[in-house]
Design goal:
It is built from two helices and seven strands; from the N terminus they run E-E-H-E-E-H-E-E-E. With 136 residues, it is an alpha+beta fold. Strands 1, 2, 3, 4 and 7 form a five-stranded antiparallel sheet that branches. It has a two-stranded antiparallel ribbon with strand order 5-6. It is globular.
């Protein structure tokens, strides 16, 4: 597992309407200052992640998730800003977010306890009707 991500107080959760923003899915509660970043190239580390996203606002915390067994990037991470305006800027730039020459998908974070069934959150197809066999 990677380093712990700072918890965010309830005052930083925001109620969003259905389909708000560029990548959120349905309505519900979103963490107003934290984003998920998916599709990271293997070359992206903490420094590259923060270097890219700092242009949108002050970063409070960031993490690139690392596989515990292989010590390689899992291809996603999280960025926590100190202001909701930074998240809005990132979302407005949805189609233009590119790190190391690769487009990365950004989504507003949904707290796991607010996710409905089948909305993921546990990785590798669990809860979404797939998953495949037990590989090596």
């Amino acid at each position: 597992m990677a380093k712990m991500i700072k918890s965010v107080g309830m005052e930083q959760l925001i109620k969003m309407g259905s389909g708000a923003g560029g990548g959120g899915g349905g309505g519900g509660e979103f963490n107003a200052v934290k984003i998920f970043v998916g599709g990271l190239p293997p070359s992206v580390d903490y420094d590259k992640l923060t270097s890219y996203f700092q242009k949108f606002g002050t970063i409070q915390d960031a993490v690139v998730m690392i596989d515990a067994a292989t010590q390689r990037s899992r291809g996603f991470g999280f960025v926590t800003f100190d202001d909701t305006a930074a998240v809005e800027l990132v979302m407005e730039n949805y189609n233009g977010n590119e790190i190391d020459g690769k487009w990365v998908e950004v989504k507003r974070c949904i707290p796991q306890d607010k996710m409905g069934p089948g909305q993921g959150g546990k990785g590798k197809g669990k809860g979404s009707g797939g998953g495949g066999g037990g590989g090596p």
